[in-house]
Amino acid sequence: MKILSIESSCDETAAAIVEDRTVLSSVVNTQIEEHKKYGGVVPEIASRRHSENISAVVDKAVKDAGLTYSDIDAVAVTHAPGLIGALLVGVNFAKGLALSLDVPLIPVHHLRSHIAANYIAHKNLEPPFLCLLVSGGNTVLAEVKDYTCFNILGATRDDAAGECFDKAARQMGLSYPGGVTLDKIATTPDTKKYPLPTPILTGNEYDFSFSGLKTAVVNTVHNAKQKGEEIDVPVLAATLRAKVCDILKAKTFLAAKNLGYKKIVLAGGVSANSELRQVFEAECNKRNYELYFPPLSLCGDNAAMVGAQAIFEYKNGNIADMSLNATATLPINYTNEGNCNE
User: Fold this and answer.
1) Between vectors from CA 235 to CA 193 and to CA 165, what angle results, nearest 5°?
2) Which of 46, 82, 150, 222 is the most exposed, having the fewest neighbouring CB atoms within 10 Å of its CB?
3) Nearest to 24 by CA among 60, 70, 77
4) Cα–Cα distances in Å, from 117 out to 125, 302, 303?
5) Nearest-CA neighbor of 336 among 323, 317, 320, 322?
6) Distance CA 134, CA 59 (A)
7) How many distinct helices (H) and strands (E) make up the chain?
8) Are the CB atoms for 280 and 264 separated by under 8 Å?
9) Which burial class, exposed, middle or buried, applies to 271 when counting CB atoms under 10 A from its CB (0-12, 13-18, 19+)?
10) Integer CA distances (angstroms), 166 to 34, 294, 301, 326, 337, in order
11) Helices (DSSP H) in 186-273: which residue ranges?
């Protein structure tokens, strides 16, 4: 089954052709350079660029796969979550395309597709497993009980890990995208030089909080400026990175131990973070756990991962009609409400 998939949830206009777990083509048109001068994504600009680029991106994906539109068996699209204006461009284009081709329209949740990036890279990976999904907008720890069945164990109560990296990096004067730049320039952490707090939460032991960490970095930078002191940016970046990764590691492996999981999956844009990968590799090696994460090329937003998840959504009967709408926020377990058939 050849699926034409579309992704437009943020600032990448992407299209791909996927057959099962095999990517026949993948095209990503990024807007990073345009948003860089603003220090972050401007939603209105992102939506306009999607409108301008989506037709050409989809055409290129079909041609790169050596196919014609008549070869397409279904159209898949990211419908949630994300920037509402950006999502609407992709959803409406996909609806029109599916209608004109008379093929099924498959709605795909953005976070589910990030997990599915691992299905492309690791052909042997199958649920059940424990997944830490970390990105600029989301930090979720979930049981993946089946390809379309998820149980959320914990999530961030405020800022996502990627948002913490991005906003802290901006305060340090690093260029956009902040989290990527921070990871590149970080050297050796020094908790004595830059003591950063460890968030303490009551209630769900698997929940996360990164707002306080972000604020601590902001205050550190502001206080130094007021005193006329220089910030050792590579060291502060490394100290923050280490703290965030330690928190992510502690929560994930606590859940793994408590629930009996020995198969761990990383997903989302922040899964490209070099320290996060190293920390999880070391911990999994120590515990003799399996660890999976996507290659760097599939960590960021792309449509190949949308197509990879779409086949499982289709098999599960998750097919939309022309009333499909974009949704800015939607939990990953929206179709099973956290309960999976045993």
Assistant:
1) 110
2) 222
3) 60
4) 11, 9, 10
5) 317
6) 31
7) 10, 10
8) yes
9) buried
10) 17, 21, 16, 26, 31
11) 211-227, 233-259
Query: Of 296, 196, 199, whose CA–CA distance to 248 is shortest?
Result: 199
Q: How far apart are CA 297 and CA 28, in angstroms?
A: 11
Per-residue 3-state assignment (H helix, E strand, C coil) for 26-38 = EEEEECHHHHHCC
Dist CA 90 CA 13 (whole Å): 8
Residues whose CB falls within 8 Å of the CB of residue 135, separated by 6 or more in sequence, listed in order: 111, 114, 160, 161, 162, 268, 269, 270
Range list of H helices, 136-205: 161-171, 178-185
Q: Please tell me the number of Cα atoms within 13 Å of 112 on its side-chain side.
A: 31
What is the rounded CA–CA span in Å between residue 236 and residue 322?
Answer: 50
